[in-house]
Design a protein that fits this description.
The protein is an alpha/beta fold. It has eleven helices and eleven strands. Helices cover about 35% and strands about 25% of the residues.
Length: about 350
């Protein structure tokens, strides 16, 4: 899955986007047809946002058809004008290619529409999420305190030390707490596909300037050997990999979280940021997406990533048993006769 699909809007859609800013349109549904973004439905405002949403949106939603929904809010920005809600609807029932295509076209459509006009954004994967109640739940979630940036974490840490400072031989100092960066929309969709077993490998990277986690790569049938070819030598990465293997006459699918440590050729700040963000990334994936990991490993050398290595991490008892068998004392030959006792011969010189 790439960052961008290459799909663009047609002239009719670009013209309609200009009309949408006038304020009389409530809902516009956009789909991808023939590798182009086109308008599928549109409706003018009739009542309030809540009333129009309940009346217009549910009939427009199809269980197996992905689509983008622009819904005008009743609020107005003094600079950009009317505010808009942007809904990315990619249902689980859709085909794999469609889901990946729609996910990788989100950024393009947002730029075509204008980022300044989109004040709310929701990602939905089922009809049950396309309700006015889901929208208000989203608003309550967004009202929660946002994660701190690196600079904010540092300033918070300094203030905490000033308040709780205790100068003595037994004084202890806290270290910088784990950082938390938001996931890009492509990462969110890739995680959803991973949970549904549509893809078996995801690679993520940190954009240090934007302080955001982006999708680097994803595949449906990746192998450890192929993953090694996709890893940069001097840059950190986070990975999710579903390792399929046979054990005790049974096929097992084990989920790994892998952190490939940045090499010594990378900057110190990069290594520190990747190490500080690791726990928050794992926590978000486990709690928000319900993905549990059988093993969480750090890779200092990308050449360690092999089928045998992953198998040994899951079943160390097999390696231990093999080691004992390898160094066991060999049995005596079966044709060997009974041991004879030799009588000691007296020394004639004594």
């Amino acid at each position: 899955m790439s960052h961008q699909s290459g799909i663009t809007a047609n002239d009719s859609l670009r013209k309609k986007i200009g009309e949408m800013k006038d304020g009389h349109i409530r809902v516009v549904v956009i789909v991808i047809e023939n590798e182009t973004l086109v308008i599928k439905e549109e409706h003018n405002a009739q009542h309030t946002f809540n009333e129009d949403f309940e009346q217009m949106i549910p009939p427009l939603v199809k269980s197996n058809r992905p689509a983008y929904y622009f819904v005008r809010l009743d609020t107005v920005n003094e600079i950009s004008g009317h505010n808009w809600l942007f809904i990315v609807y990619i249902p689980d029932e859709a085909k794999v290619r469609e889901r990946m295509l729609y996910a990788s076209t989100v950024a393009t459509l947002k730029r075509e529409f204008g980022l300044a006009y989109i004040t709310e954004e929701i990602r939905a994967s089922s009809i049950n999420e396309m309700t006015i109640n889901s929208f208000h739940q989203h608003i309550r979630t967004q009202a929660a305190p946002p994660p701190r940036t690196i600079r904010e974490e540092e300033m918070h840490e300094i203030k905490q030390r000033e308040i709780t400072s205790d100068i003595s031989v037994d004084s202890k100092h806290q270290t910088l707490q784990g950082l938390m960066f938001p996931f890009d929309e492509n990462v969110l969709e890739a995680l959803h596909l991973f949970k549904n077993q549509t893809v078996n490998y995801i690679q993520m990277e940190i954009d240090h300037e934007k302080e955001r986690i982006f999708l680097s790569h994803s595949e449906s049938t990746a192998t450890p050997e192929h993953i090694r070819t996709c890893l940069p030598e001097n840059a950190g990465r986070y990975h999710l990999y579903r390792f399929t293997h046979d054990f005790n006459n049974e096929t097992i699918h084990s989920t790994f979280f892998l952190y490939s440590v940045p090499g010594h050729g990378s900057k110190i700040k990069q290594r520190m940021v990747y190490a500080s963000c690791k726990e928050s990334v794992i926590d978000t994936i486990e709690k928000k997406f319900g993905i549990t990991f059988d093993r969480k490993l750090e890779l200092c050398d990308i050449n360690d990533l092999t089928n045998d290595y992953l198998f040994q991490q899951l079943h160390p008892e097999v390696l231990a048993s093999a080691s004992k068998t390898s160094f066991a004392r060999p049995k005596a030959p079966s044709t060997r006769g009974p041991r004879r006792l030799l009588k000691a011969v007296d020394n004639p010189d004594e």
